[in-house]
Amino acid sequence: MTHCRCLPSGVILALVARIHEPLQPTPIPLDPRDEPEDDALQLSRDEPEDNSEEGNWCNITPMRGHELLTDQELAEVRRRSDVMGLALVLHAWAIIFAAMALFAVWPNPLTFLLAVMLIGSRQLGLAILMHDAAHKALARTFWLNEFLGSWACGAAVAADLYAYRPYHLKHHRYTQQAEDPDLVLSAPFPVTRASLARKLLRDLSGQTGFKQRRAQLRAALGTPGAPLNARVQTFAAKLGRPLIVNGLLFAGLCALGFWWLYPALWLVPLLTWYMAVTRVRNIAEHALVPDNDDAFRNARTTLAAPLVALFLAPYWVNYHVEHHLLMWVPCYNLTKLHRLLRQKGYLLRLEIQPSYWRVLEMAAAKPALPRTPVAAT
Fold first, then answer.
1. Are 198 and 302 spatial neighbours (Cβ–Cβ below 8 Å)?
2. pTM of the entire structure?
3. Taking 80 as the threshold, does the pLDDT of residue 208 lie above it?
4. Which of 138, 185, 279, 374 could pair with 132 as two cysteines, CB 3.0-4.6 Å apart?
């Protein structure tokens, strides 16, 4: 009689319990061969949390909401909505499934490329909506905010709301200062055109995405030689939610008879276009800002036409300096905040660029080193 080897019941119970706990992960180990800004598209963070909701706070130029707007205006721009938060999450997933359907019905290289770009931009959109949830601004009801941010948004793209929240609030407190955990994203710029091109090529070819997912998997597997129970708990803590959500997505596509859409039009965009637009977003937000010590100018708003926003800047993420001035404003109220700041004469003080193309030109403005001629022998 043969016997199957099963995990002990204690291990299984620990696995289930860890999936439902707020995660406390360690940072993902990085490849020392990476260029500094390549370390920036990280998936997990681990810093102390500060949940202060009184205006904005930072370590440079403290900015309170009432210094910019009236109490009534503040109430308007800070108003959160369960309906709007849920609608935006559904909107992101609707575009994802519509893009998949487009290619399934009319399969050709053009519709595949379009679907990859649409889905990759919505994967960024899910990360942006998780970001709003990290500020407790996506939905008014707390449990709905947490559920949408953690399960419906973050887990789908293998990000973790509970690890991201304290990390990101530290970024707001120390924006562009030595303690800013995101300084690695902006400090290396400008670079040469060739360097920026290589970075974007690595993103679009899947190299960046593969490297980061590999590092994420290694971190989730825990310390070699550690007890099995501890390693199972570590794996569940780091990848439990992403595996459940992605498993449900794959199972749903299988049930519809389109299993191949998961690797072709979920994993491919996740490893390519999502990586590229995340890099562009990171560059635009803080690289080469005019004054690291001025709350009006240590973050950047980049204007984007509707088509550009569709593929590069979903859900008003381009209004970044407004977000830093009043970080508890939901993304769906940032355009209203922008209009109010303009009406009050603040616009000339803000760092605003006319397009993402202009920002990339600035980021790639470092002159290339002249080639040293090879002496004839």
1. no
2. 0.85
3. yes
4. 138
